[in-house]
Design goal:
This protein has 487 residues and is α+β, with helices and mostly antiparallel strands. The protein has 14 helices and 20 strands. The chain has an eight-stranded mixed beta sheet with strand order 5-13-14-15-18-12-11-6. A three-stranded antiparallel beta sheet has the order 2-3-8, with no helix packed on it. Strands 10-16-17 form a three-stranded mixed beta sheet, with no helix packed on it. It is elongated.
Protein backbone atom coordinates (compact mmCIF):
# COMPACT_ATOMS: atom_id res chain seq x y z
CA UNK A 1 0.00 0.00 0.00
CA UNK A 2 1.30 3.43 -0.90
CA UNK A 3 1.40 6.06 1.80
CA UNK A 4 0.56 9.72 1.41
CA UNK A 5 3.58 11.86 2.36
CA UNK A 6 3.17 13.32 5.84
CA UNK A 7 3.37 16.89 4.59
CA UNK A 8 0.45 16.19 2.21
CA UNK A 9 -1.65 14.75 5.02
CA UNK A 10 -0.73 17.76 7.14
CA UNK A 11 -2.06 20.11 4.50
CA UNK A 12 -5.49 18.53 4.75
CA UNK A 13 -5.44 18.74 8.53
CA UNK A 14 -4.30 22.36 8.38
CA UNK A 15 -7.10 23.28 6.01
CA UNK A 16 -9.61 21.78 8.40
CA UNK A 17 -10.51 18.74 6.28
CA UNK A 18 -10.42 16.42 9.26
CA UNK A 19 -12.30 18.65 11.66
CA UNK A 20 -16.12 18.32 11.82
CA UNK A 21 -18.12 21.34 10.77
CA UNK A 22 -20.30 23.58 12.91
CA UNK A 23 -22.09 21.02 15.13
CA UNK A 24 -22.20 17.31 15.66
CA UNK A 25 -24.24 14.89 17.76
CA UNK A 26 -22.87 12.32 20.15
CA UNK A 27 -22.90 8.85 18.65
CA UNK A 28 -26.05 6.79 18.82
CA UNK A 29 -24.32 3.57 19.79
CA UNK A 30 -23.53 3.73 23.51
CA UNK A 31 -20.32 1.90 24.30
CA UNK A 32 -19.29 3.42 27.63
CA UNK A 33 -20.62 2.59 31.10
CA UNK A 34 -23.91 4.10 32.12
CA UNK A 35 -24.18 6.99 34.56
CA UNK A 36 -22.82 6.20 38.01
CA UNK A 37 -22.56 8.37 41.06
CA UNK A 38 -19.23 8.92 42.78
CA UNK A 39 -20.96 10.13 45.94
CA UNK A 40 -24.58 10.58 46.94
CA UNK A 41 -24.15 14.07 48.33
CA UNK A 42 -21.58 15.36 45.85
CA UNK A 43 -23.96 15.38 42.87
CA UNK A 44 -20.93 14.71 40.70
CA UNK A 45 -21.40 11.97 38.15
CA UNK A 46 -19.34 10.12 35.60
CA UNK A 47 -20.77 10.46 32.11
CA UNK A 48 -20.46 7.76 29.52
CA UNK A 49 -21.91 7.95 26.03
CA UNK A 50 -25.12 6.37 27.24
CA UNK A 51 -26.11 9.42 29.29
CA UNK A 52 -25.46 11.85 26.46
CA UNK A 53 -26.50 10.02 23.30
CA UNK A 54 -28.46 12.25 20.97
CA UNK A 55 -28.77 14.91 23.65
CA UNK A 56 -25.84 17.30 23.58
CA UNK A 57 -24.28 19.37 20.81
CA UNK A 58 -20.76 20.73 20.73
CA UNK A 59 -19.33 23.61 18.69
CA UNK A 60 -16.13 22.86 16.82
CA UNK A 61 -14.22 24.27 13.89
CA UNK A 62 -15.53 24.19 10.33
CA UNK A 63 -14.75 21.46 7.83
CA UNK A 64 -15.43 22.17 4.16
CA UNK A 65 -15.14 18.88 2.29
CA UNK A 66 -15.12 15.14 2.88
CA UNK A 67 -13.89 14.41 -0.63
CA UNK A 68 -10.26 13.76 0.22
CA UNK A 69 -11.18 11.28 2.92
CA UNK A 70 -13.53 9.47 0.53
CA UNK A 71 -10.82 9.18 -2.12
CA UNK A 72 -8.00 8.19 0.27
CA UNK A 73 -9.80 6.30 3.03
CA UNK A 74 -7.42 3.32 2.80
CA UNK A 75 -4.46 5.58 3.44
CA UNK A 76 -6.08 6.98 6.55
CA UNK A 77 -6.79 3.43 7.69
CA UNK A 78 -3.08 2.71 7.40
CA UNK A 79 -2.30 5.81 9.45
CA UNK A 80 -4.80 4.68 12.08
CA UNK A 81 -3.27 1.20 12.13
CA UNK A 82 0.11 2.72 12.91
CA UNK A 83 -1.53 4.41 15.88
CA UNK A 84 -3.08 1.14 17.04
CA UNK A 85 -6.69 1.96 16.17
CA UNK A 86 -9.19 0.71 13.59
CA UNK A 87 -11.40 2.63 11.17
CA UNK A 88 -14.70 1.13 10.00
CA UNK A 89 -14.19 1.91 6.30
CA UNK A 90 -16.91 -0.47 5.09
CA UNK A 91 -19.34 1.24 7.41
CA UNK A 92 -18.26 4.66 6.17
CA UNK A 93 -18.62 3.66 2.51
CA UNK A 94 -22.09 2.20 3.09
CA UNK A 95 -23.08 5.33 4.97
CA UNK A 96 -21.69 7.55 2.24
CA UNK A 97 -23.51 5.60 -0.48
CA UNK A 98 -26.80 5.81 1.40
CA UNK A 99 -26.33 9.53 2.00
CA UNK A 100 -25.57 10.28 -1.66
CA UNK A 101 -28.57 8.27 -2.85
CA UNK A 102 -30.87 10.12 -0.48
CA UNK A 103 -29.49 13.48 -1.58
CA UNK A 104 -29.96 12.61 -5.26
CA UNK A 105 -33.53 11.42 -4.66
CA UNK A 106 -34.34 14.54 -2.67
CA UNK A 107 -32.92 16.83 -5.32
CA UNK A 108 -35.23 15.17 -7.85
CA UNK A 109 -38.19 15.60 -5.51
CA UNK A 110 -37.34 19.28 -4.95
CA UNK A 111 -37.11 19.81 -8.71
CA UNK A 112 -40.50 18.13 -9.12
CA UNK A 113 -41.95 20.31 -6.38
CA UNK A 114 -40.64 23.48 -8.03
CA UNK A 115 -42.23 22.54 -11.31
CA UNK A 116 -45.47 21.67 -9.55
CA UNK A 117 -45.44 25.04 -7.81
CA UNK A 118 -45.35 26.77 -11.16
CA UNK A 119 -48.20 24.56 -12.39
CA UNK A 120 -50.28 25.29 -9.28
CA UNK A 121 -49.75 29.02 -9.80
CA UNK A 122 -50.87 28.68 -13.44
CA UNK A 123 -53.99 26.69 -12.52
CA UNK A 124 -55.00 29.21 -9.88
CA UNK A 125 -54.43 32.09 -12.28
CA UNK A 126 -56.73 30.39 -14.77
CA UNK A 127 -59.31 29.73 -12.04
CA UNK A 128 -58.85 25.95 -12.40
CA UNK A 129 -58.94 23.39 -9.55
CA UNK A 130 -55.44 22.68 -8.17
CA UNK A 131 -56.47 20.78 -5.01
CA UNK A 132 -55.24 17.40 -6.21
CA UNK A 133 -51.81 18.72 -7.15
CA UNK A 134 -51.56 20.68 -3.91
CA UNK A 135 -52.28 17.50 -1.92
CA UNK A 136 -49.62 15.61 -3.87
CA UNK A 137 -47.08 18.34 -3.21
CA UNK A 138 -47.95 18.40 0.48
CA UNK A 139 -47.09 14.69 0.66
CA UNK A 140 -43.98 15.25 -1.43
CA UNK A 141 -42.86 18.09 0.88
CA UNK A 142 -43.23 15.78 3.87
CA UNK A 143 -40.99 13.18 2.15
CA UNK A 144 -38.44 15.89 1.41
CA UNK A 145 -38.49 17.02 5.03
CA UNK A 146 -38.06 13.49 6.37
CA UNK A 147 -35.23 12.80 3.92
CA UNK A 148 -33.45 16.02 4.89
CA UNK A 149 -33.58 14.93 8.53
CA UNK A 150 -32.13 11.54 7.58
CA UNK A 151 -29.35 13.19 5.54
CA UNK A 152 -28.51 15.42 8.51
CA UNK A 153 -28.24 12.32 10.71
CA UNK A 154 -25.95 10.62 8.20
CA UNK A 155 -23.86 13.79 7.97
CA UNK A 156 -23.43 13.76 11.73
CA UNK A 157 -22.38 10.10 11.69
CA UNK A 158 -19.84 10.77 8.95
CA UNK A 159 -18.37 13.62 10.91
CA UNK A 160 -18.20 11.42 14.00
CA UNK A 161 -15.81 9.18 12.11
CA UNK A 162 -13.57 12.11 11.29
CA UNK A 163 -13.74 13.23 14.90
CA UNK A 164 -12.26 9.91 16.00
CA UNK A 165 -9.17 10.36 13.82
CA UNK A 166 -6.12 11.22 15.94
CA UNK A 167 -3.37 13.65 15.11
CA UNK A 168 -0.77 12.59 12.54
CA UNK A 169 2.51 11.48 14.16
CA UNK A 170 5.59 13.52 13.36
CA UNK A 171 8.09 11.84 11.05
CA UNK A 172 10.55 11.42 13.95
CA UNK A 173 8.10 9.32 15.98
CA UNK A 174 9.03 5.61 15.93
CA UNK A 175 6.46 3.06 14.81
CA UNK A 176 5.26 0.74 17.55
CA UNK A 177 2.25 -0.99 19.07
CA UNK A 178 2.66 -0.08 22.73
CA UNK A 179 4.87 1.07 25.59
CA UNK A 180 7.35 -1.72 24.91
CA UNK A 181 8.24 0.00 21.62
CA UNK A 182 9.00 3.41 23.14
CA UNK A 183 12.59 4.58 22.80
CA UNK A 184 14.80 5.80 25.62
CA UNK A 185 16.39 9.12 24.68
CA UNK A 186 18.46 9.77 27.81
CA UNK A 187 18.58 9.22 31.54
CA UNK A 188 19.84 11.31 34.40
CA UNK A 189 21.26 10.48 37.80
CA UNK A 190 21.49 7.08 39.40
CA UNK A 191 19.17 4.97 41.49
CA UNK A 192 19.78 5.38 45.24
CA UNK A 193 21.41 2.53 47.13
CA UNK A 194 19.88 1.32 50.37
CA UNK A 195 21.30 -0.87 53.12
CA UNK A 196 17.73 -1.94 53.88
CA UNK A 197 14.73 -3.04 51.85
CA UNK A 198 13.04 0.18 50.61
CA UNK A 199 9.34 0.36 51.39
CA UNK A 200 6.54 1.62 49.13
CA UNK A 201 5.42 5.19 49.66
CA UNK A 202 2.14 4.28 51.33
CA UNK A 203 3.94 2.32 54.05
CA UNK A 204 6.53 5.06 54.59
CA UNK A 205 3.85 7.75 54.59
CA UNK A 206 1.46 5.98 56.96
CA UNK A 207 4.29 5.08 59.31
CA UNK A 208 5.47 8.70 59.42
CA UNK A 209 1.92 9.94 59.94
CA UNK A 210 1.89 12.05 56.76
CA UNK A 211 -0.51 9.98 54.61
CA UNK A 212 -3.89 8.64 55.69
CA UNK A 213 -5.57 6.53 53.00
CA UNK A 214 -8.01 4.99 55.46
CA UNK A 215 -9.44 8.42 56.28
CA UNK A 216 -9.65 9.29 52.58
CA UNK A 217 -11.62 6.11 51.90
CA UNK A 218 -13.96 6.98 54.77
CA UNK A 219 -14.45 10.57 53.59
CA UNK A 220 -14.85 9.85 49.89
CA UNK A 221 -13.84 6.40 48.66
CA UNK A 222 -11.06 4.55 46.91
CA UNK A 223 -8.36 6.41 44.93
CA UNK A 224 -8.35 9.49 47.15
CA UNK A 225 -5.74 10.66 49.66
CA UNK A 226 -5.51 12.66 52.87
CA UNK A 227 -2.12 14.30 53.40
CA UNK A 228 -1.36 15.28 56.99
CA UNK A 229 1.22 17.39 58.77
CA UNK A 230 4.53 17.39 56.94
CA UNK A 231 2.93 15.38 54.14
CA UNK A 232 0.52 18.22 53.37
CA UNK A 233 3.39 20.69 53.70
CA UNK A 234 5.46 18.65 51.23
CA UNK A 235 2.63 18.66 48.66
CA UNK A 236 2.31 22.45 48.96
CA UNK A 237 6.08 22.98 48.91
CA UNK A 238 6.45 21.02 45.70
CA UNK A 239 3.78 23.03 43.89
CA UNK A 240 5.34 26.33 45.01
CA UNK A 241 8.80 25.14 44.01
CA UNK A 242 7.60 24.11 40.55
CA UNK A 243 5.82 27.40 39.93
CA UNK A 244 8.75 29.48 41.15
CA UNK A 245 11.20 27.73 38.81
CA UNK A 246 8.92 27.94 35.79
CA UNK A 247 7.94 31.58 36.29
CA UNK A 248 11.27 32.97 37.48
CA UNK A 249 13.65 30.94 35.34
CA UNK A 250 11.74 29.50 32.38
CA UNK A 251 9.65 32.50 31.36
CA UNK A 252 6.13 31.21 32.01
CA UNK A 253 3.28 33.39 33.23
CA UNK A 254 1.38 31.91 36.13
CA UNK A 255 -2.38 31.47 35.72
CA UNK A 256 -4.90 30.39 38.33
CA UNK A 257 -7.92 29.17 36.30
CA UNK A 258 -11.29 27.72 37.32
CA UNK A 259 -11.32 24.04 38.20
CA UNK A 260 -14.65 23.64 36.37
CA UNK A 261 -14.71 23.74 32.57
CA UNK A 262 -17.50 23.70 30.02
CA UNK A 263 -18.12 21.29 27.16
CA UNK A 264 -16.79 23.64 24.49
CA UNK A 265 -13.46 23.92 26.32
CA UNK A 266 -13.09 20.14 26.62
CA UNK A 267 -14.01 19.68 22.96
CA UNK A 268 -11.54 22.31 21.82
CA UNK A 269 -8.73 20.66 23.79
CA UNK A 270 -9.56 17.22 22.37
CA UNK A 271 -10.82 15.67 25.62
CA UNK A 272 -14.33 15.29 24.25
CA UNK A 273 -15.86 13.25 22.87
CA UNK A 274 -13.18 10.54 22.98
CA UNK A 275 -12.44 10.67 26.71
CA UNK A 276 -15.92 11.29 28.09
CA UNK A 277 -15.79 8.14 30.22
CA UNK A 278 -12.67 9.43 31.99
CA UNK A 279 -14.33 12.66 33.12
CA UNK A 280 -16.63 13.80 35.92
CA UNK A 281 -19.62 16.01 35.08
CA UNK A 282 -21.76 18.09 37.41
CA UNK A 283 -25.27 16.79 37.01
CA UNK A 284 -27.75 19.15 35.37
CA UNK A 285 -25.08 21.63 34.21
CA UNK A 286 -22.61 22.14 31.39
CA UNK A 287 -19.73 22.03 33.89
CA UNK A 288 -17.13 19.28 34.15
CA UNK A 289 -14.34 18.85 36.69
CA UNK A 290 -11.10 19.61 34.90
CA UNK A 291 -9.02 16.53 34.02
CA UNK A 292 -5.92 18.72 33.51
CA UNK A 293 -5.30 22.46 33.39
CA UNK A 294 -4.16 21.90 29.81
CA UNK A 295 -7.86 22.38 29.07
CA UNK A 296 -8.11 25.79 30.76
CA UNK A 297 -4.78 27.07 29.44
CA UNK A 298 -5.54 25.96 25.89
CA UNK A 299 -8.87 27.77 25.94
CA UNK A 300 -7.42 31.07 27.12
CA UNK A 301 -7.32 32.07 23.44
CA UNK A 302 -10.18 30.04 21.99
CA UNK A 303 -11.72 31.69 18.91
CA UNK A 304 -9.01 34.35 18.94
CA UNK A 305 -6.52 35.61 16.36
CA UNK A 306 -3.21 36.56 17.94
CA UNK A 307 -0.49 38.74 16.49
CA UNK A 308 2.65 36.88 15.47
CA UNK A 309 4.65 39.21 17.75
CA UNK A 310 2.83 37.72 20.75
CA UNK A 311 4.25 34.26 20.08
CA UNK A 312 5.38 32.22 21.84
CA UNK A 313 2.97 32.54 24.75
CA UNK A 314 4.09 30.45 27.73
CA UNK A 315 1.70 29.86 30.63
CA UNK A 316 1.70 27.60 33.67
CA UNK A 317 -0.98 26.68 36.20
CA UNK A 318 -1.40 24.66 39.36
CA UNK A 319 -4.78 22.97 39.67
CA UNK A 320 -6.42 19.94 41.10
CA UNK A 321 -7.23 17.41 38.36
CA UNK A 322 -10.10 14.93 38.37
CA UNK A 323 -10.28 11.67 36.43
CA UNK A 324 -12.56 8.68 36.72
CA UNK A 325 -9.78 6.25 35.73
CA UNK A 326 -12.47 4.28 33.91
CA UNK A 327 -9.96 1.96 32.25
CA UNK A 328 -7.73 1.47 35.29
CA UNK A 329 -9.67 -1.15 37.21
CA UNK A 330 -7.20 -3.29 39.16
CA UNK A 331 -4.20 -1.09 38.30
CA UNK A 332 -2.12 0.60 41.02
CA UNK A 333 -4.76 -0.01 43.66
CA UNK A 334 -2.33 0.61 46.53
CA UNK A 335 -1.04 4.07 47.36
CA UNK A 336 -1.57 7.32 45.49
CA UNK A 337 -0.02 6.67 42.09
CA UNK A 338 -3.39 6.63 40.32
CA UNK A 339 -6.02 8.89 41.87
CA UNK A 340 -9.43 10.34 41.07
CA UNK A 341 -8.12 13.68 42.37
CA UNK A 342 -4.54 14.85 42.17
CA UNK A 343 -2.64 18.11 41.87
CA UNK A 344 -0.45 19.07 38.93
CA UNK A 345 1.53 22.01 37.61
CA UNK A 346 0.93 22.27 33.87
CA UNK A 347 3.11 23.93 31.23
CA UNK A 348 1.48 25.20 28.04
CA UNK A 349 2.71 27.05 24.95
CA UNK A 350 1.13 28.76 21.95
CA UNK A 351 3.85 28.88 19.29
CA UNK A 352 4.61 29.72 15.68
CA UNK A 353 4.48 26.53 13.56
CA UNK A 354 8.06 27.04 12.40
CA UNK A 355 9.34 27.06 15.97
CA UNK A 356 7.11 24.54 17.72
CA UNK A 357 9.61 21.69 17.78
CA UNK A 358 12.33 23.93 19.15
CA UNK A 359 9.87 25.03 21.83
CA UNK A 360 8.90 21.40 22.43
CA UNK A 361 12.46 20.41 23.27
CA UNK A 362 12.70 23.43 25.57
CA UNK A 363 9.49 22.43 27.35
CA UNK A 364 10.84 18.94 27.96
CA UNK A 365 14.01 20.53 29.36
CA UNK A 366 11.92 22.69 31.70
CA UNK A 367 10.28 19.61 33.20
CA UNK A 368 13.61 17.76 33.40
CA UNK A 369 15.11 20.67 35.33
CA UNK A 370 12.68 20.06 38.20
CA UNK A 371 13.69 16.42 38.52
CA UNK A 372 17.36 17.31 38.38
CA UNK A 373 17.03 20.00 41.07
CA UNK A 374 15.34 17.42 43.28
CA UNK A 375 18.11 14.88 42.67
CA UNK A 376 15.74 12.26 41.29
CA UNK A 377 16.83 9.52 38.92
CA UNK A 378 14.76 9.62 35.71
CA UNK A 379 14.74 8.76 32.04
CA UNK A 380 13.26 10.51 29.01
CA UNK A 381 11.27 8.33 26.61
CA UNK A 382 10.13 9.09 23.05
CA UNK A 383 6.72 7.51 22.67
CA UNK A 384 5.96 5.34 19.65
CA UNK A 385 2.95 5.73 17.38
CA UNK A 386 0.93 3.13 19.29
CA UNK A 387 1.43 4.69 22.73
CA UNK A 388 1.15 8.42 22.12
CA UNK A 389 -1.89 10.51 22.96
CA UNK A 390 -4.84 11.21 20.66
CA UNK A 391 -4.04 14.91 20.11
CA UNK A 392 -0.26 14.60 20.01
CA UNK A 393 2.06 14.69 17.02
CA UNK A 394 5.08 13.88 19.20
CA UNK A 395 5.39 13.07 22.89
CA UNK A 396 8.21 12.59 25.37
CA UNK A 397 7.44 10.95 28.71
CA UNK A 398 9.63 11.57 31.75
CA UNK A 399 9.74 8.54 34.02
CA UNK A 400 11.05 8.72 37.57
CA UNK A 401 12.68 5.85 39.46
CA UNK A 402 10.65 4.21 42.25
CA UNK A 403 12.87 1.93 44.34
CA UNK A 404 10.09 -0.01 46.06
CA UNK A 405 9.00 -1.55 42.75
CA UNK A 406 12.42 -1.26 41.11
CA UNK A 407 11.03 0.48 38.02
CA UNK A 408 10.53 3.80 36.25
CA UNK A 409 7.04 5.34 36.31
CA UNK A 410 5.67 8.27 34.32
CA UNK A 411 5.80 11.65 36.06
CA UNK A 412 5.39 13.98 33.07
CA UNK A 413 4.17 13.77 29.50
CA UNK A 414 5.29 16.56 27.14
CA UNK A 415 3.53 16.82 23.78
CA UNK A 416 3.56 18.91 20.63
CA UNK A 417 0.02 18.87 19.24
CA UNK A 418 0.96 21.02 16.24
CA UNK A 419 -2.28 22.62 14.91
CA UNK A 420 -4.61 19.78 15.98
CA UNK A 421 -6.02 21.51 19.07
CA UNK A 422 -5.84 25.00 17.55
CA UNK A 423 -8.09 23.95 14.66
CA UNK A 424 -10.70 22.60 17.05
CA UNK A 425 -10.62 25.76 19.16
CA UNK A 426 -10.12 28.31 16.37
CA UNK A 427 -6.81 29.73 17.63
CA UNK A 428 -4.92 31.56 14.89
CA UNK A 429 -2.22 34.16 14.48
CA UNK A 430 -1.78 36.94 11.94
CA UNK A 431 1.66 36.97 10.25
CA UNK A 432 3.77 40.07 10.71
CA UNK A 433 4.00 40.68 6.98
CA UNK A 434 0.25 40.44 6.52
CA UNK A 435 -1.59 37.76 4.60
CA UNK A 436 -3.90 34.98 5.67
CA UNK A 437 -4.00 34.02 9.34
CA UNK A 438 -2.63 30.60 10.33
CA UNK A 439 -3.29 28.18 13.14
CA UNK A 440 -0.85 28.30 16.04
CA UNK A 441 0.83 25.17 17.34
CA UNK A 442 0.07 24.17 20.94
CA UNK A 443 2.36 22.31 23.32
CA UNK A 444 1.70 20.97 26.79
CA UNK A 445 3.44 19.06 29.53
CA UNK A 446 3.39 18.35 33.24
CA UNK A 447 5.89 20.39 35.14
CA UNK A 448 5.36 18.20 37.21
CA UNK A 449 2.59 15.99 38.60
CA UNK A 450 2.77 16.98 42.28
CA UNK A 451 1.49 13.74 43.80
CA UNK A 452 3.84 11.54 41.81
CA UNK A 453 6.78 13.77 42.75
CA UNK A 454 5.67 13.39 46.38
CA UNK A 455 5.83 9.63 45.90
CA UNK A 456 9.29 9.82 44.32
CA UNK A 457 10.71 11.90 47.16
CA UNK A 458 9.22 9.72 49.88
CA UNK A 459 10.53 6.54 48.28
CA UNK A 460 13.95 7.74 47.11
CA UNK A 461 14.79 9.72 50.26
CA UNK A 462 13.42 7.30 52.87
CA UNK A 463 15.74 6.30 55.71
CA UNK A 464 16.03 3.11 57.71
CA UNK A 465 14.44 4.77 60.78
CA UNK A 466 11.37 5.75 58.77
CA UNK A 467 12.34 9.40 58.37
CA UNK A 468 12.49 11.12 54.98
CA UNK A 469 15.30 13.45 53.93
CA UNK A 470 14.25 16.65 52.17
CA UNK A 471 16.14 17.51 48.95
CA UNK A 472 18.16 20.69 49.40
CA UNK A 473 16.16 22.60 46.79
CA UNK A 474 12.99 22.05 48.84
CA UNK A 475 14.33 22.90 52.27
CA UNK A 476 13.57 26.66 52.04
CA UNK A 477 9.96 25.70 51.26
CA UNK A 478 9.71 23.09 53.99
CA UNK A 479 11.67 24.76 56.81
CA UNK A 480 13.16 21.39 57.80
CA UNK A 481 15.74 19.02 56.34
CA UNK A 482 14.01 15.82 57.35
CA UNK A 483 10.49 14.56 57.94
CA UNK A 484 10.70 12.57 61.19
CA UNK A 485 9.76 8.92 61.28
CA UNK A 486 7.25 7.34 63.60
CA UNK A 487 7.65 8.31 67.25
Amino acid sequence: MSVVPRVQLQQYFLTGLLVPEAWYFWRRTCVFPALSEIGASARIVRHGWSTLCGAVRYPVATMHDLGYFRDHADLFAEMARRRNMTLDLDGFRALDKQRRELITANEQRKSERNKASDEIARLKKEKQNADGLIAEMKQLSEWIKQTDVKVDELDARQKELLLTLPNIPHSSVPYGKGAEDNQEVRRSGAAPKFDFQPKPHWEVGERAGILDLEAAARITGARFAVYKGWGARLERALANFFLDIHTKEHGYTEVLPPFLVNTASLTGAGQLPKFAADLFKLEGTDFWLTPTSEVELHNLHRDATLNEEQLPIRVTAWTACFRSEAGAAGKDTRGILRQHQFQKVELFKFTHPDKSYQEHEALVGNAETILERLGLHYRTMLLCTGDMGFASAKTYDLEVWLPSSNEFREISSCSNCEAFQARRAGIRFKPKGGGKSEFVHTLNGSGLAVGRTWIAIVENYQQADGSILIPEALRPYMGIDRIPGAK
